[in-house]
Design brief:
By secondary structure, the protein is α/β, with parallel strands linked by helices. About 50% of the residues lie in helices and about 20% in strands. It contains 5 helices and 4 strands. The chain has a 4-stranded mixed β-sheet with strand order 1-2-4-3, with helices on both faces. Strand 1, helix 1 and strand 2 form a beta-alpha-beta unit. Helix 3 crosses helix 4 and helix 4 packs across helix 5. The longest helix is centred in the C-terminal third of the chain and has 16 residues. The mean pLDDT is about 95.
């Protein structure tokens, strides 16, 4: 299936082993929430690169695994650039003792869930976000 979902690598040597399957999975989650998928771009990068974006655009001087920019002009439409630190995902997967790909998929869908209106500022919201992530991960067919 052809989707307006693209994957790029900025300052790291990284590419998904199965971009079509990942794009299909993400698109199906968006569809389930009855949102229109206009354009979704993932940019894989290093900790340094993402830290710079965090400082420059969000005024946060911290490392993070993902930053989601919602570029949509209207409600119910997904148009976004999502930056993902491969360094951070790799470290977190190691710390959690889970496969890198599982943590990467959790982070990829985490960004989409934000675009679908889920928040994670409070403990309750965080628990709901985690539940949604797990639900989405269980829908992978690869």
């Amino acid at each position: 299936m052809d989707h307006p979902i693209e994957f790029y690598s900025e300052d790291v040597e990284f590419s998904l082993s199965n971009p079509e399957q990942v794009a299909d999975w993400i698109a199906s989650i968006v569809e389930q929430h009855e949102y229109e998928l206009a354009n979704l771009t993932y940019i894989f990068c290093s900790d340094d690169y993402l830290h710079q974006i965090n400082v420059e655009y969000l005024d946060h001087d911290t490392l993070t695994d993902i930053i989601t920019f919602d570029n949509a002009d209207e409600e119910g439409v997904i148009e976004s650039d999502i930056f993902v630190s491969i360094d951070r995902v790799r470290d977190n997967a190691q710390t959690l003792g889970i496969p890198f790909e599982d943590e990467l998929h959790r982070v990829l869908i985490h960004g989409v869930l934000h675009l679908l209106g889920y928040k994670d500022k409070t403990e309750e919201q965080e628990a709901q976000m985690r539940k949604q992530e797990d639900s989405c991960l269980s829908l992978r067919k690869f």
